[in-house]
């Protein structure tokens, strides 16, 4: 558990907005190379790591995907010393005023998101929430410096440093979904000295927050026999309806719903029971809003499972996650990969 | 000791310590300790009064010295814990003027031990578009210190935004620049006090909740005149419809802001003129803060006893009372230079009845 903390802090401190994942991809790649047989990058920027199985070819394969892209913002125009921005991924603009950011211009420029004074806003926004299009980024630089260093299309990422909140919890931005990347890394580490029957593809997928484009194309390219998506789910907290949220530190979330193969869900439940890994079941709607959907419908269809890690305050720069939940998820994934044998696909029959 | 003050690395480090310290109105102890450590070795007298103000005297030399009160407030806006809802979730109220639209999604530090916490927000995925058209009220927010840490926080603890001081090119980004810029400036002025005056330094408490410390400090010192050092809002941002922004209050980079009138004070015209003349004689940039609302400790000081001629000089700062303000280093330097030069030129006849206008 203690091992995961420094890695997770490093993960959320690496930038990688949707479609621009290179910095975090390189960082993950460095960590995966020593614990995988080969590592490569897909056409749309997902990171693929293969741990080869031992069954004769053609060998069945398991793909586990955790998206690595982050939500953030992008410069739309420069007005004197200030920048207008648009969102990358889904952001509630009401959490933005006063946020610390980094503008990725010709160099990295620290800044802050400003809510202009009332008299500089349209009348309907003077007292209520200010639309993202009327918020500004201030880098503290003079207008000529801004003109030289920043242009439309430059990325703006959250700069909130990781906060060790309590013994088992970390707060910060982009824990959605770097927490799951950490779980997938734990899975690879646990399997390092074990032989698998199946091939295992660990995928840090790109572009999930915008289009699910990374997981969809990786699943097509790698054509796994089974796919598992790992993503964060709602952690219980103020304002979050209790029937939609899960306590931090109380275990892994096993999802079920139209995106998930029922027999696969059942297999995970039985495995968790056997391993005494605590879990809760979440029923996801018609579209889980995750990589599970994109992988389920890839090529001629892939039996897919979705595992969740509870996270408070999703899509804010102060998301909170339990480290215990991450390591448990990693262990469950590893044990699942190790349990797959030549007969497994036959067990996956429809009722 | 060089008698002309400047802002170098040492002063910058001190401002960093001062802004990172937590001192919500009524609980100014952390800043008071830094101030006392800095000034005790260099003043003739220093004491902490009944409300918690630091009152220090640095006497000059020669005849007919004016007794000049210089005041800067130590307190900052913040939060006070009012109730423990559940293991790690705490209700709170704001202390001082905080726009609730700045709270969601911010880290905070709670209590004397600086326990880290976050003010979360409902995930955007679970909000309706109607909901997103309403501001999030303080009532709906909680400070979350993380599972297992609830016992480290108690009702009555103060909390502040958790922003650390950073340089942004020619600017500075920090919480509580209002008024740690004034506090840091006043410390330098005490260190380099001109000999023609008795410098009466008041590091005041509870400015943000009603100028409470400054009133009693002015009473105690009974000075001939007062100069209030504060940080005033710079509203120098573009308007949404690209119309001219004629209500900028002050502008970053345009120099120290001299007050003429605000909601609480009509500033002494002789002192305003003295500052303007000093700036022009010394080639120091300055600006007149646009007359209007707002106020400084002068509101409490100038009506104290039989009246105390007062003026305010402020370092312009964007986004005061939010997690992260932005100020320009050159404005701070020029504020220090202007006030120091103005003090050195002070003569008793300045306060003779103003019949020039």
Your description of this structure?
The complex is a heterodimer of chains A (351) and B (357). With 351 residues, chain A is of the alpha+beta class. Chain A folds into two domains: 4-70 and 173-347, Zn peptidases (Aminopeptidase, 3-Layer(aba) Sandwich); 72-158, Elongation Factor Tu (Ef-tu), domain 3. Chain A has helices at residues 4-12, 22-32, 143-149, 175-191, 213-222, 262-275, 291-296, 323-339, 344-347; strands at 38-41, 47-51, 61-67, 72-79, 82-88, 100-104, 108-114, 136-138, 155-158, 163-166, 169-172, 199-205, 226-234, 252-256, 279-283, 304-312, 319-322. In chain A, strand 16 and strand 17 (319-322) form a beta hairpin. The radius of gyration of chain A is 21 Å and the shape is globular. Chain A starts with a helix and ends with a helix. By secondary structure, chain B is of the alpha+beta class. Chain B has helices spanning 9-20, 29-39, 129-132, 177-191, 212-221, 269-282, 298-301, 329-344; strands spanning 45-48, 54-58, 66-73, 78-86, 89-95, 106-110, 115-119, 143-144, 158-161, 166-168, 171-174, 197-204, 225-233, 257-258, 287-288, 310-318, 325-328. In chain B, strands 1, 2, 3, 10, 11, 12, 13, 14, 15, 16 and 17 form an eleven-stranded mixed β-sheet that branches. A six-stranded antiparallel barrel of chain B has the order 4-5-8-7-6-9. The two termini of chain B are 40 Å apart. The interface between A and B is large, with 67 and 63 residues.
Short description:
Chain A has 351 residues and is an alpha+beta fold.
Structural class computed from helices and strand pairing of chain A: alpha+beta
Distance N terminus to C terminus of chain A? 39 Å
Number of helices of chain B: 8
CATH domain topology of the largest domain in chain A: Aminopeptidase
Query: Structurally, how many domains make up the residues of chain A?
Result: 2
- The CATH class name of the largest domain in chain A reads Alpha Beta
Shape of chain B: globular
> What level of helicity do the residues of chain A show?
25-40%
SS field, number of helical segments of chain A:
9
Helix content of chain B: 10-25%
Multimeric status of the protein: heterodimer
CATH architecture of the largest domain in chain B: 3-Layer(aba) Sandwich
Q: At CATH's second level, what is the architecture of the largest domain in chain A?
A: 3-Layer(aba) Sandwich
β-strand number of chain A: 17
User: What is the CATH topology of the largest domain in chain B?
Assistant: Aminopeptidase
Profile the largest sheet of chain A.
Answer: 11 strands, mixed
């Amino acid at each position: 558990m203690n091992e995961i903390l420094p890695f997770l802090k490093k993960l959320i401190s690496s930038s990688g907005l949707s479609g621009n994942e290179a910095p975090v991809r390189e960082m993950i790649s460095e960590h995966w190379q020593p614990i995988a047989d080969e590592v490569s990058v897909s056409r749309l920027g997902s990171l693929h790591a293969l741990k080869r199985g031992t069954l004769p070819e053609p060998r069945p394969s398991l793909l586990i995907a955790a998206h690595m892209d982050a939500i953030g913002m992008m410069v739309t125009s420069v007005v004197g010393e200030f920048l207008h921005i648009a969102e990358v991924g889904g952001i509630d603009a009401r959490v933005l005023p006063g946020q610390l950011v980094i503008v990725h211009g010709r160099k990295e420029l620290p800044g802050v998101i400003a809510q202009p004074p009332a008299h500089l806003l349209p009348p309907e926004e003077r007292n209520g929430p200010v639309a993202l299009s009327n918020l500004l980024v201030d880098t503290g630089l003079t207008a000529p410096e801004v003109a030289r260093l920043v242009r439309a299309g430059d990325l703006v990422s959250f700069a909130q440093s990781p906060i060790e909140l309590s013994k088992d919890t970390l707060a910060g931005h982009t824990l959605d979904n770097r927490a799951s990347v950490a779980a997938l890394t734990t899975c690879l580490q646990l399997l390092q000295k074990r032989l698998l029957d199946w091939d295992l593809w660990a995928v840090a997928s790109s572009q999930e927050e915008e289009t699910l484009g990374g997981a969809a194309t990786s699943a097509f390219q790698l054509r796994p026999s089974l796919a598992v998506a790992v993503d964060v789910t709602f952690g219980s907290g103020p304002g979050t309806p209790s029937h939609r949220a899960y306590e931090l530190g109380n275990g892994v979330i096993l999802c079920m719903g139209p995106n998930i193969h029922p027999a696969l869900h059942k297999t995970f439940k039985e495995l968790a029971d056997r391993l005494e890994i605590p879990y809760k079941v979440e029923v996801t709607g018609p579209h889980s809003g995750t990589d599970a959907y994109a992988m389920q419908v890839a090529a001629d269809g892939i039996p897919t499972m979705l595992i969740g890690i509870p996270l408070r305050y999703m899509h804010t720069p102060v998301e909170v996650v339990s480290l215990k939940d991450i390591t448990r998820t990693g262990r469950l994934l590893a044990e699942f990969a190790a349990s797959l044998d030549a007969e497994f696909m036959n067990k996956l029959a429809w009722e | 000791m060089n008698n002309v003050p400047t802002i170098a690395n040492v002063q910058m480090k001190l401002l960093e310590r001062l802004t990172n310290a937590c001192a919500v109105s009524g609980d100014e102890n952390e800043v008071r300790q830094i101030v006392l450590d800095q000034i005790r070795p260099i003043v003739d007298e220093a004491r902490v009064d009944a409300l918690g103000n630091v009152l220090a005297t640095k006497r000059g030399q020669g005849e007919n010295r004016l007794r000049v009160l210089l005041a800067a407030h130590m307190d900052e806006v913040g939060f006070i814990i009012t109730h423990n809802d559940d293991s790690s979730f705490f209700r709170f109220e704001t202390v001082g003027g905080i726009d609730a639209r700045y709270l969601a999604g911010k880290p905070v530090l709670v209590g004397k031990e600086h326990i880290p916490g976050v003010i979360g927000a409902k995930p955007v995925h679970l909000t309706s578009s109607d909901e997103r058209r309403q501001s999030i009220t303080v009532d709906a927010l909680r400070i979350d210190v993380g599972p297992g840490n609830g016992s480290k926080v108690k009702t009555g603890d103060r909390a502040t935004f958790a922003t650390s001081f950073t340089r942004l090119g020619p600017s500075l980004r920090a919480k509580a620049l209002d008024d740690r810029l004034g506090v840091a400036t006043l410390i330098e002025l005490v260190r380099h006090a001109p000999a023609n005056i008795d410098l009466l330094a008041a590091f005041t408490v509870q400015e943000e909740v009603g100028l409470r410390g400054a009133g009693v400090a002015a009473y105690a010192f009974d000075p001939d005149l007062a100069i209030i050092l504060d940080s005033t809002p710079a509203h120098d941002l573009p308007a949404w419809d690209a119309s001219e922004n004629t209500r900028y209050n002050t502008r970053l980079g345009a120099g120290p802001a001299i007050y003429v009138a605000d909601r609480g004070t009509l500033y002494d015209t002789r002192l305003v003129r003295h500052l303007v003349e000093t700036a022009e004689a010394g080639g120091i940039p300055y600006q007149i803060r646009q007359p209007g609302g707002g106020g400084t400790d002068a509101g409490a000081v100038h009506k104290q006893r039989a009246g105390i001629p007062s003026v305010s000089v402020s370092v312009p700062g964007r986004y005061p009372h939010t997690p992260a303000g932005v100020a320009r280093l050159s404005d701070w330097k020029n504020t220090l230079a202007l006030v120091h030069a103005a003090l050195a030129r002070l003569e008793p006849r300045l306060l003779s009845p103003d019949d020039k206008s």
